[in-house]
Amino acid sequence: xxxxxxxxxxxxxxxxxxxxxxxxxxxxxxxxxxxxxxxxxxxxxxxxxxxxxxxxxxxxxxxxxxxxxxxxxxxxxxxxxxxxxxxxxxxxxxxxxxxxxxxxxxxxxxxxxxxxxxxxxxxxxxxxxxxxxxxxxxxxxxxxxxxxxxxxxxxxxxxxxxxxxxxxxxxxxxxxxxxxxxxxxxxxxxxxxxxxxxxxxxxxxxxxxxxxxxxxxxxxxxxxxxxxxxxxxxxxxxxxxxxxxxxxxxxxxxxxxxxxxxxxxxxxxxxxxxxxxxxxxxxxxxxxxxxxxxxxxxxxxxxxxxxxxxxxxxxxxxxxxxxxxxxxxxxxxxxxxxxxxxxxxxxxxxxxxxxxxxxxxxxxxxxx
Length: 368
Description:
Elements: E1 16-25, H1 32-43, H2 53-79, H3 86-104, E2 110-118, H4 123-132, E3 135-142, H5 152-163, E4 171-174, H6 182-199, E5 204-210, H7 214-218, H8 223-238, E6 245-250, H9 263-272, E7 277-281, H10 290-293, H11 295-306, E8 311-315, H12 322-335, H13 345-367
Parallel strand pairs: 1-2, 1-3, 3-4, 5-6, 5-7, 7-8
Helix pairs in contact: 1-2, 3-12, 6-8, 6-12, 9-11
């Protein structure tokens, strides 16, 4: 396998470090064409759909994409903002805020960038940009607190596949999960308490996580257990008794059985049982997106109210909350131990001088 050409090497160039905050992805626009392109990339990943490739190719291209692209585009249009896709906007802001906080905490030479597993900016694109900047140490930070083969492992696949064609590899550190990280749980706790202080507290707190096929659990995926551990730790922080909260799973797709209980049917059942008000939070989503803003705040709300529920409250994702940015910084620090921190001005000047000398020598050699 041929390796891609390396950028020109300059003696004395300053090698640096970077954190890549990786989220799932989003279409470039709320249009049928853009959504189709995004869905094709997303649903073609064998980590996402474990069906024999030939069979799935026919289902995806002949059935799903022709019919689902338009419907999904309409849903995206309902939550699209002036700045663009909410998921992308929030992830960009989180990356910028994380960069500032790392600077404040003494990691001034660690760059923070955002990438998407599907869509743009793509992981390969971002990793190439970092190589061009002479970044030699990279931490990959998935935006998924709970590990799953369908999400986190897919990011690993993309990173390793990219570097399979690279000769000069950077040092890589991969964040696997942080479902039980104290700072992450604290951020969730503060977010919910802040909501309750403003809006009051409901009869039930429903913690809705993204679903995956039940088959993945039976084959050894730890996602289900990590969701429940997050929920248990959060409930303990909120001092909730077992009858005051529920764990559910949303976004079921296809006819196969997925992790249960399902979110929408559970909300309908709660309404029929006389629960007047529910508060719904999505701890597994760190940025508001289609699955939270449309599926939960709109569709699930309608299901609950149509079944007789009186009041439905959606508690937003962590987004740019200060406690969440602090959690991101602490998680990052745990994975960049030993990396150079902020340089003094004299060190910066010395490195810049060395780099300038290197460039001059390279130019002289080229001229000769």
